[in-house]
Amino acid sequence: MDSNTMNRPEAGEISGPTPGLTAAMLQQVIETSLSGICIVDRQGCIAFANASLLDMWGYNLSEMVGKPVTRLWLSPEEGRDCIARALSTGRWTGTIAARREDASSFSSRIALSTVRDPGTAEVWLLLSCIEAGVKRGVRDAPGHRRSLERAVAAMPARFIDTAAIDPAIDDSLEELGRVCGACRVYLALFNDLRTLLGTTHEWCRAGQAPLRGESRNLFKGKPPRWAVQVLKGETVIVNGVSEDGRPDRREREFLERHGATAALMIPLRLSGAVVGFIGFDLDADNAHFADEDVALLSAAVHIIAGALDRKQSEYVFRESEGLYQIVLDAITDTVTVVDTHLTLLLANDAFIAWCEDLGLETNVVGKDIFAVVPFFPPATRQLYERVVRTGRPLTSERSLKSGDRTMILREMRIPIFEHGEVARIVTVARDVTAQKEVEDLKSKAYAQIERNMEQFALLADHIRNPLQAIMGHAELLDDPGTTERIRQQVQRINGIIDQLDERWGESRRLSMFWRRYS
């Protein structure tokens, strides 16, 4: 947009050259869009708005052009905050509490992006929006209810990676706060003795004094009503009035400190115990929390608690990892621990040394086992799946090939159970290639010995048969002396063969013993 030609367009008109797109075409695209679109000039005023946006907010074009874009927000301060974010990062997306021309409010999902004037390089804003709440005229549900449902439904995806749980909590608190019209949303935790309360995560609207990082002593004297109820696991609404309907000084002081007129506190449980709460502050006059909103916000707190519980479980596992690692490193066999997604959680020194010997990655924890050992065949995955499915240990022995090297691995997979289901699998593996080679050599040696002994037995029989012939021929001689000498030599040879037969029997028994016990 050329700043010389687009200072203030007439109602319903867009002017200024656009590279690759004529002004008439651009206007047609914007006007026919089902999304609400407006163009904001460098002074923060609306330069153009299409019919969808005008219908959404209930204005006509002449009432919008030249007016500050912050009038679209229920809170102008929040509008300036969103615009500042868009100008600093180039884009901002979120759900806002919007204000119609008739002063009614609704939720709108908007996207703000910066656009640079090709002629002057000055920054303009393009605002695109859709209505996030229910249609106007529906009296049985506030306009923000559907937006709140969507905000809660989008939360689980943020908490998939427990390593990024803190920014996920911050983003969730911000979106919940914007959707439900809160001026502050925060997560507060009790200390172990439940005497101190500290705010660890917080989102607050522009103009609100942040409380993050502050701690306060709860139990100097009589504890406040809301603290006692939260510790009992009850959801509490603080509005400055006691249970008997009289003004409550301590609650009023609490609300004044937070700059709020009402506050909702939903207990946060970890492993069944209340460890803190998530608070929602409202600052509008006559502010109140509808039962449906409380139910949705309670579901959001439950999602955050589940993520924190999972993070705590992993922390406990990592805390004990040091002891596990010392034990595992003392084992000469390779030992790995994987979860059900086959991500490596632990690996001992023997496994790391084996990977290094094969030229594989040695920084293995947190990675998929098939990424670490790429030559594992698909059958390996099937073995892990079988252990997860059956919950029973499994022993296997198979040949693997890495490059020009062939090895034989003997593995035992042992399931580890949590809450009755397989959560992790311990694999103990040994490279038995050399052992197999020795066993093959021994088998070949035993086979050769057997063949030699059989041949020896045949040779002994072959020697005895000619001796019998020699002796029969000697007895036919007329010379008794010669016959006697021949008979004595035949007996001597037969005695030697008998001794060999005895040694053959002993060798046979020794060979059987070796086969059985070696």
Please supply descriptive tags for the structure shown above.
GAF; 24% strand; single chain; alpha+beta; disordered N terminus; 518 residues; HisK_dim/P_dom; PAS_4; 6-stranded antiparallel sheet; elongated; PAS domain-containing protein
Structural account:
This is PAS domain-containing protein. It comes from Methanoculleus methanifontis. It holds the Pfam family GAF. The protein starts with about 20 loop residues before the first helix and ends with a helix. Helix 5 runs antiparallel to helix 7, helix 7 packs antiparallel against helix 10 and helix 14 packs antiparallel against helix 15. The protein is elongated. A six-stranded antiparallel β-sheet has the order 8-7-6-11-10-9, sandwiched between helices. It is of the alpha+beta class. It has 15 helices and 16 strands.
Number of strands: 16
Mean pLDDT, nearest integer?
A: 80
Q: Uncertain spans, ≥5 residues at pLDDT below 50?
A: 1-23, 133-143
Cα-atom Rg, whole angstroms? Answer: 43 Å
Helical content band: 40-55%
Q: In this structure, how is the largest beta sheet organized?
A: 6 strands, antiparallel
